[in-house]
């Protein structure tokens, strides 16, 4: 185990760094801001259209998954950009794969919401 903060001090510092990460994503990533706005609309909507606690939870989690993957994608892009502006096939691949992960998370959201809406309101 590496030396450093432990216990509640570690948790407090981890929360601080997480807050800094969220602030940086908000400040520098337009896609993150857009997805947060969509989340602020969709998560309350899940409570209106979901008919069970499980449906509401799955709908909300599918929205939060998009934000989670966007944060990871933004971190990948920041690291790649940090190590040089010249085009390298591995840098491009890393960015493309991160983008694909976001697309899969959005597809997951669409499937989850579509299935639940279909089941609740069209069957």
CATH class: Mainly Alpha
Order of helical and strand elements: HHHH
What is the radius of gyration computed over CA atoms, rounded to a whole number of angstroms? 18 Å
Q: What structural class results from the helix and strand content?
A: mainly alpha
CATH fold title = Helix Hairpins
Transmembrane segments: 30-50, 97-118
Membrane topology: Multi-pass membrane protein
Keywords: ATP-binding, Cell inner membrane, Cell membrane, Kinase, Lipid biosynthesis, Lipid metabolism, Magnesium, Membrane, Metal-binding, Nucleotide-binding, Phospholipid biosynthesis, Phospholipid metabolism, Transferase, Transmembrane, Transmembrane helix
InterPro entries: DAGK, DAGK_prok, DAGK_sf
Concise description?
The chain has 123 residues and is mostly helical. It has helices at 7-28, 30-49, 53-82, 89-121. Its main location: membrane.
Structure write-up:
The chain has one domain (30-121): Helix Hairpins (Orthogonal Bundle), CATH 1.10.287. The model has no long low-confidence stretch (mean pLDDT 95). It contains four helices and no strands. The chain has 123 residues and is mainly alpha-helical. The termini are far apart. The radius of gyration is 18 Å and the shape is globular.
């Amino acid at each position: 185990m590496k030396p450093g903060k432990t216990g509640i001090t570690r948790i407090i510092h981890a929360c601080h760094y997480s807050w800094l990460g969220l602030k940086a994503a908000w400040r520098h990533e337009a896609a993150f801001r857009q997805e947060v706005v969509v989340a602020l609309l969709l998560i309350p909507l899940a409570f209106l259209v979901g008919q069970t606690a499980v449906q509401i939870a799955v709908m909300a989690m599918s929205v939060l998954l998009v934000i989670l993957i966007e944060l990871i994608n933004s971190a990948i892009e920041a690291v790649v950009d940090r190590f040089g502006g010249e085009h390298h096939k591995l840098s491009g691949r890393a960015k493309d794969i991160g983008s694909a992960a976001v697309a899969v998370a959005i597809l997951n959201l669409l499937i989850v919401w579509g299935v639940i809406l279909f089941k609740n309101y069209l069957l």
